[in-house]
Amino acid sequence: MKKKLNLAPVFFVGPHVILFAVFILLPTIYGIYASFTKWNLMNDPVWVGLDNYKTILFDNSSTFHTQFNNGLKNTLIFVLLSVPLLIVIPLLVAVALEHKKVKGKSLIQSIIYIPGLISISAGALIWLLLFNKQLGMAGNVFGSDVSWPANQPYAWIIIIIITVWGGVGGNMIIYRASISGVAQDLYESAEIDGAGPVRRFTSITLPSIRFPLIYTFVMTTAGAFNVFGQPLMMTDGGPRQSTHVLMMYIRQLAFGNGESIAGMASAMAVLLGLIILVISALQYYVMNRNAA
Amino acid sequence: MDNSPLLNGQNAGKRKGSGISISKYLSYLFLIILCIIWIVPVIFGITTSFRSQTEVVSSGFRMFPKEWIFDNYIAILENTSTAPILRWLMNSLLIATMHTLLVVVVISITGYGYSRMKFKGRDTLFFTLLGISFFPGVVNLIPSYKIIDALGWVNTSWAMVIPGLAGMGNIFLVRQFMNGIPKELDESAHVDGASHYRIYMSIIVPLIKPVLIVCALFSFTGSWNDFLWPVIVFTDVDKMPVTAGLLLLQDIYGNYRMIGQLMGSAILAIIPTLLLFVFAQKYFVQSINLNSGIKG
């Protein structure tokens, strides 16, 4: 009897520990190890020390260096363009929806939420049609004469549009839930003191939803660094590699046509991972301290 | 006609009243514009899937077709060689369903272990795994493929069904939720001689249904919509899920020559998650309430 009880936790927690070890822990460690090797995914990795990192970061004559710089630059552009919109627009929607007199809230909320349930590939096909030069809305209704995916800044614009379209709903739900949790008497007493809507927003709403704000900011930013599907589907990295993001290079090097360069790709992945870690930690630290 | 209370109300709050109406109209304007932008692409995609190719090319932009035709859908379903969309949909359905069922089993059992059982190092183990899982996933992407390859799972549904079970996020939610259930419930059952399995099945699982439903819904839609991973692990056209299939369609229906079929395929691919949303809307929307960590 006693022995049986001691073993019980193994049956409950054990299977997941194994899954975790095999599909998260082991590949993470191996990914870091592989970044110090020359590896083609087939044969055993050959240890090369810091060579991959030196090439990526400092070797001006290497294509890997150019690819990494270009990929990182484009990823950063994506992050800087998309994250503020993915924080501000959902916040505005949530505040507008909190308005007592606005009717049809749940319908509006559903309409804004639904694109989040549409896969990137399906959404991209639909949006590409809208921006198609001959067939779509951009050309026929607004008289635009450019091929959007093939010209800048239009290529970035359509990538950002589909991202915002798909991403606003999730954050909106978080903000709505937390704003509705703010005590109503705070607003009432502020109103009696003559505080206008803007003042009530900055002095009551924002501070009250501080933690959800930090949370969405950190998560949205980390997610944006992993951007892959939108540029792949919308522009295929073009025009002239100007929307080719880091994840696309990593996939291309490791799994593209021709011999896999998985070691180099792993080093890029580790660098991207480190950037995400550092930026997340920084965001959390700065926002939490400023708000406290 | 006695409308004095109304009049009184208006007089008493005149300034306040006008302030509210301006902000009300601004709110409306903003929300309506946004809704139009949000819904028009979907409607246009749907209506285009019912247009003939000649109409799409010749008649300029129209929101609704002159003549509604089903030819595109017939053509999609008949094309089983280059773009077997029906097969892709079945693959996705199988993958997402299996993944979801297993998620529910794994997170409820594991959550029970971390929340309701006492064993040495329990919380240390839990928080260690949680901490490790915060490490950015991009680092384990390439070796994960290698593991899938070693298991013989490349081009199989297992590649999509199993690795996602290792995540900590849902287990964290379930554990949180379970911690809110009074310990006396299962302790007294324990004293009565009930086994952990019994307590898990007949006491805890019924009580954590709401969190399990939410996790199931998000697992299903997440699995259905996953893109990067299937693009990496599937090279066999017949085996892939529909998200990866749509990437191929871009080439197959190159440069939007078969626009109606392209749109029809995209619409078919989004129907299952939309249906799920229609039937389980409240769980999607209230999901956040379960996460007391975010509510703050």
From TrEMBL, chain A:
Residues 72-283 form the ABC transmembrane type-1 domain. It holds the Pfam family BPD_transp_1. Belongs to the binding-protein-dependent transport system permease family. Keywords: Cell membrane, Membrane, Transmembrane, Transmembrane helix, Transport. Signal peptide: none annotated. It is a multi-pass membrane protein. Its main location: membrane. It is found in: Cell membrane. InterPro entries: ABC_transporter_permease, MetI-like, MetI-like_sf. This is ABC transporter permease. The chain crosses the membrane at residues 7-33, 76-98, 110-130, 154-174, 209-228, 261-286.
